[in-house]
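Let's see one such:

===
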Amino acid sequence: MSDDETRDDDGGSQGHDTFEDDEMLVKVLIAPSAAGCIIGKGGSVINEFQTTTGARIQISRNGETFPGSADRVISVRGAVGKVLEALHHMIAKLVEDNEEMGAGGVPSVRLVVPNTSCGGIIGKGGSQIRAAMEDSGSQISLSAIDKMLPGVTDRVLQITGQSENILRALALVVVQLLGDPSYLPHALRPSAFLASSPVSARGEGNSKKNKQTTHAARSAKDVDVVVTVSVPDEHIGAVLGKGGRTISEIQVASGVRIKVSDRNDFEPGTRNRKVTLFGTEQGTKLAHALLKQKLSNPGNPAGGPSRAHADADW
């Protein structure tokens, strides 16, 4: 493996975010019970798929799920032909193991699609999606836009049918997305987050508390506020996370924009960096709480307060 790639515990790999003209990134949701059959013992299956197809396949870590669900996210990246071949292998494996079956035991595949790209898939008056269904012989549906959780910009495209019908529909959708200049920049954003993140709690949950929380988030004032937090320089890594993952999670979970001052740009008389939150009052409160939680327990499963929490200006 090259030095510019990172490999997760399940054997998937991902390089830098640069794409060739015919390169594509497709994200697929998979139930936690089905993830094992794609990963294989010690990553054997996913590694075989990568070797056979030449596509790069990465599965979100256990506990990192698509918002509002328990599903993990599979990212498949490579030339369009390689991506479709890898999806073909994955579908065949899922069918073989009787996983990811829809109603009546019919195979089903769910793609993660940025909301900005859904209009092109639907087409004027639904013409594009109807044509894709007629061409492929499969059923294609998109999750409702009003069911999107606050801060989440992705919707779920579900394709149901026999394996060959699903593959045809996938090819049509992938080609459509490849021609959409807004797709890749949005698809590169994280789609899986820690299951404990507020963004992963369903607003339609059974508890009254969940419904009240969601209602409060949606009814928050739209007027933007700015909140500034002072964090010791040595603990900025806990705010950013590996590859910026933590700060991205917090931004999506809260719906606010977070800016960290440049390296060596300290608050006067300190070695503290400035972390600025831009967003609604409700969103900045949530982001502030998540940052405080992260600095109280930066990667320490055993819990307990940290020096970062003591030094941060809350």
Summary: The first strand starts at residue 6 and ends at 7. The chain has a mean pLDDT of 78. The chain has twelve helices and 13 strands. Residues 80-96 form the longest helix (17 residues).
